[in-house]
Amino acid sequence: MKNAVVGYLITLTYFLAIDFSWLSIMSKKVYSPQIGHLMAEKPQLLPAFIFYLLFVVGLLVFVILPSISQNYPIGKTLLYAALFGLVTYATYDLTNLATLKNWPIIVTIIDMIWGATLSALVTLLSILTIKKIG
């Protein structure tokens, strides 16, 4: 249980830091020009925080902990992580594409690629850190 908590905190830290950096840059370059009319003036932090908490639980339970306990090759682990990110981000973006008027397909594509990339990167860093400390 202690390892899971430590792994969770490590993974959450990497996820928040990397995604915050991405959003800081891409918000002005992609999101505001494409969906600025839908964006709140000030983001609601509680739903965002709940998303981060839940996403990291999923990444840890479905990818990171099984990879460590089963000693998966890193390629398999990163593939699973990317697939997890792709599917989760696709759920949001494809739903928006299907249900919202004029939802830009470019946002869907960028988000799905980002979800896969972010998940793989966070998984790699988390596993390396978890293995290093213990």
From TrEMBL:
Species of origin: Candidatus Woesebacteria bacterium GW2011_GWB1_38_5
Lineage: superkingdom: Bacteria
Protein name per the record: DUF2177 family protein
Coiled-coil annotated spans: none
Keyword vocabulary terms for this entry: Membrane, Transmembrane, Transmembrane helix
TM segment ranges: 5-25, 45-65, 77-92, 104-130
